[in-house]
Amino acid sequence: MPDRPLNATAASLLGFLHERPMTGWDLVATAELLIGDFWSLTRSQVYRELAAMAASGLVEAGESGARDARPFTVTAAGRAAFADWAAQEPGPETIRFPLLLAVGFGRHLPAGRLAASLAAHRVEHEKRLQRYGELAAAVSDDPFATATLDFGRHYEQAVLGWFDALPAAVTQA
Amino acid sequence: MPDRPLNATAASLLGFLHERPMTGWDLVATAELLIGDFWSLTRSQVYRELAAMAASGLVEAGESGARDARPFTVTAAGRAAFADWAAQEPGPETIRFPLLLAVGFGRHLPAGRLAASLAAHRVEHEKRLQRYGELAAAVSDDPFATATLDFGRHYEQAVLGWFDALPAAVTQA
DNA sequence: TGGTACATGTAACATGTTACATGATTAG
DNA sequence: CTAATCATGTAACATGTTACATGTACCA
Q1: A99-121: per-residue pLDDT in tens?
Q2: Residue spans of chain B under pLDDT 70
Q3: Nearest to residue B15, comparing CAs of B99, B84, B65, B61?
Q4: Does B38 contact A100 at a Cβ distance shorter than 8 Å?
Q5: Is A4 near strand D, with its CB below 7 A from some atom of it?
Q6: How many CB atoms lie within 10 A of CB A89?
Q7: How many CB atoms lie within 10 A of CB B148?
Q8: Nearest nt to A65, CA vs C1'?
Q9: What is the DSSP string of B98-158?
Q10: Three-state DSSP state, A22
Q11: pTM above 0.90, yes or no
């Protein structure tokens, strides 16, 4: 009974469970590390999806270990559901960038507001680029992880390039 | 009674209404055109937000015109709410990119799946870059609209650059 | 013994998506 | 007259966020 195609968040959890059984906590940490930069999720969501997937037999909770830690294991049905998801064409990306809204409505912002926001965001993006650089060595043996990290680097470089190409009419607004 | 800070979607609608009264339909079209590439919204959402904002006095429905068209006007309270929103520091962007999930889980995908997805997406991104190029002339008199469009160009160029730098280990998986 | 990291979860709410349902106006 | 476009909305559901509540184990 294929309830309906998995959503990408649930599918990702299943994907991680292909490697080894993990607790909800582990999954959050793993997801943050490996896909957090282009697919965010919260603890609440993880527990909810795990409960739902356990109910439909895609995962199974193991014996509680220390501190009630309940490792989940992917079942055969879970592998099948993941495979179904993986066979789908991935959808288009969505980007939600509040700073760009601020730019778009720049005419209506109080003086100095946009300049300050741009400066603050630029710093963050520089940090992220630097972090990606530091992470690169850690995943150099995995071409897939390297590729996603590399996306991040291209992205951050583009954002920085965009900041630096903004005309004074925008940065001084 | 400031119900609570506006969400970015509602704020954007208010922003557009600063220019002129518009119907829900108009707002959808305007938003798609001007911010659709980095802030998506649906018709349902627009009508819901308009109803909510009308209930709290941020907008007012005018006389119905042809075909029940109900133009909404921003009120003084609406301008104030928008100003409050605009004074906030814009939050970080969120990117949700299913293709990157596919790359990250590349090891688990059926043979050829990833290559096909990458190729299909590359075509889309090329089209988008081209579209942005064509749009540029239309907004050349507005530095803010030009800046957001320019972000799109930087972004698309980065994505294309990333595609082209992918190693065979990924593109041939 | 005290703080940090580990670990689980619920409840309430906000936001976003999809499908459905209806009808008027206009251009051809 | 008929198809496309304009225009409104509801209902149901899926997804995502925030705040709250609880307790254990480890390390210094």
Answers
A1: 999 999 999 999 899 999 999 99
A2: 1-3, 65-67
A3: B84
A4: yes
A5: yes
A6: 13
A7: 26
A8: C7
A9: HHHHHHHTGGGSPTTHHHHHHHHHHHHHHHHHHHHHHHHGGGTT-HHHHHHHHHHHHHHHH
A10: strand
A11: yes
